[in-house]
Amino acid sequence: MNKKLIAVLLSIFLFSFMFYVLSTNSTTYVNEYSALKTASYIIYKDGSTIVALSGTTSALLASGTNASYVIQHAIDATASTGMGSIHIREGEYDITNTIILRNGITLLGIYKWTQLKAKNLNGDMLKTAIGAMNIHIANILLWGRRDQADGQTNGNGINIYGDGSGYRTRLENLIITYTSKSGIEIGGSTGATAGTDMHIVGSDISYSGEDGIHVGTASGSGNDLVIERNTIHHNLQHGIHLRCAAGDQIIGNNIYGNTLSGISEEGEGQNQIIGNKINANGQYGIKFGYANRDQIIGNEILDNSQTANNTYYGIRIEGGVGRAAYNTISNNYIGSSSKVKVHIGIYLGDSADYNLVTNNIIKEVGNVAILNRGGANNKIWRNIGFVTENSGTATISSSISVTFNHGLAGTPTFVSVSFNATGWRSWKWRATSTQITVTVEARGTYLVYWSAEYRP
């Protein structure tokens, strides 16, 4: 090939490659620069001084050594114009007073490099004003430091509180750790609802003094939330605690190592628990009281009951009369991959009725795969590890009866048989928890085709 042509082609390739590299590497800086230029205010550290500048004019709004004051000043100034965003640059910011979140505020950091650290704080780190909605908080580390003498002595990481607060609010890509109470608390005041249409996405919530995420209070509910793709671990109470909640979606979270249950629900119902990993928690994987029309589908629930081996359950459903009904529990994988086992895979309590338990895989439990202490209208079928239907053949050989193992999870409630020959006249059956005996009236040799069901 012509040497000049080769040189030209090589030059074109190298130019194209260098242009691609430069343009690709500059994308992050261009996007960050554009975001900062559209911010209402930019907050950064200059030595020990915290500075808030206008994102559009660079005019000084506030400065000082009190980060809580400067951040609050920027939030209040932004809210006074209707809505806007505040960008907090990388650095450690000591939070000594609760920061109040107002309507329409976006608060953005640079992920773990923007650190809000509680210091001698007796209260929540961030808390909504009553009725504040359309809030967006992302890419920030909230460090309660409850384990340190000058850390947070009371309060939550984020508290969405008050009638109507948190509507269409989004919390994403946060790290919330070592808070005095819950990582995130959502609940209305007396008889009110907070957090409607709220999203909590892609965050890491750990080592909180109470729950990772706490939804609802004794007098106010948190409804229609989406809690998705978070990692919630090593909190001193529950991973997720739905104290008073309805219509919530808990999807694709990794919930492990919490002292009490992975997910606990105490009221309302109509929640969806789908596709979560709920492993190695201290007590129950999922514990529902007063569950009603909940869906528990496609979760991995392994190695729970860590605080007391062979004591707690993978899934526990119970509640008052009529309040543990019409729930669907399906396609879950429940059991153990270690020496620690749950006592029962799925437990339906005394008041549980009209529930569907199907297509679950249950293995390596300490006692029984499924225990139904509830009503006769619970439907339990097609679960691996808890056989409710079986069939086979047996031979009566020059006799009037045959006894065989049925392989069901309990004493059969229904048995059907047929024979390969006539002449047996009549037949009857009896069963124990392990075997079926079929007896005919006329002695002979017959091949018996049997099927049996166990409906607990």
Fold and architecture overview:
The protein is mainly beta and 456 residues long. The chain has 4 domains: 1-38; 41-259, Single-stranded right-handed beta-helix, Pectin lyase-like (Pectate Lyase C-like, 3 Solenoid); 264-386, no CATH class; 390-453, no CATH class. The protein contains 2 helices and 47 strands. The strands form 7 sheets. Strands 3-2-1-4-7-11-15-19-23-27-31-34-37-40-43 form a 15-stranded mixed β-sheet, with helices on one face. An 11-stranded parallel β-sheet has the order 5-8-12-16-20-24-28-32-35-38-41, with no helix packed on it. Strands 6-10-14-17-21-25-29-33-36-39-42 form an 11-stranded parallel β-sheet. A hairpin with a 2-residue loop joins strand 1 (41-46) and strand 2 (49-54). The chain is elongated. The N and C termini lie far apart (82 Å). The model is unreliable at 5-34 (pLDDT under 50).
Name the CATH architecture of the largest domain. Answer: 3 Solenoid
- The average pLDDT value, as a whole number, equals 89
Shape descriptor reads elongated
| Total discrete domains | 4
CATH topology title of the largest domain:
Pectate Lyase C-like
Largest sheet: 15 strands, mixed
Order the strands across the largest sheet as they lie in space.
3-2-1-4-7-11-15-19-23-27-31-34-37-40-43
* Percent of residues in β-strands: 35-45%
Radius of gyration: 30 Å
Count of helix runs: 2
CATH homology-level superfamily of the largest domain: Single-stranded right-handed beta-helix, Pectin lyase-like
Based on secondary structure, the structural category is mainly beta
Unreliable spans are: 5-34
What separation lies between the terminal Cα atoms? 82 Å
Q: Strand tally, please?
A: 47
The share of residues in helices is 10-25%
